[in-house]
Design goal:
Length: 129
């Protein structure tokens, strides 16, 4: 295959649109299939519940969902996002937008840390004396 055909096929695979084309050199019909799996209704509602819990939302569901699907492991991350309880310890103006949260993969940075009762240890407990 020549460079133009490879480029066309690459573009068709990126967009995920099924399309029939003919090879200009041999005339053979080339059929490309959609490579992206669109989310089903359950996955859409899971993402919608996360999006509503997240305080920094700016755009609509479709735009944010398309942005989230760009990641290769979005099906594995979606249940984690649905269960995630993000507590922002700052004002609302410092919460990043949902697009920033998705693009920078910030779900990998947030850990489920249990608060410690005495962060300084028993040797600094001044109440026992």
């Amino acid at each position: 295959m020549n460079k133009k055909i490879r480029r066309l096929l690459w573009h068709l695979q990126r967009t995920g649109l099924p399309m029939k084309t003919n090879c200009p050199c041999c005339g053979q019909e080339i059929v490309t299939q959609a490579t992206k799996n669109s989310p089903n209704a359950i996955e859409t509602t899971m993402f919608e519940t996360f999006r509503l819990k997240y305080k920094g939302k700016k755009r609509g569901l479709d735009t944010e969902l398309k942005n989230f699907i760009k990641h290769k492991d979005w099906r594995q991350v979606l249940p984690k996002l649905d269960r995630m309880d993000i507590k922002w310890g700052c004002e609302t103006k410092y919460i990043p937008h949902l697009a920033t949260f998705i693009n920078q993969r910030r779900w990998e940075m947030i850990e489920d840390v249990k608060p410690t009762v005495n962060p300084y240890g028993e040797q600094h407990d001044w109440r026992t004396e």
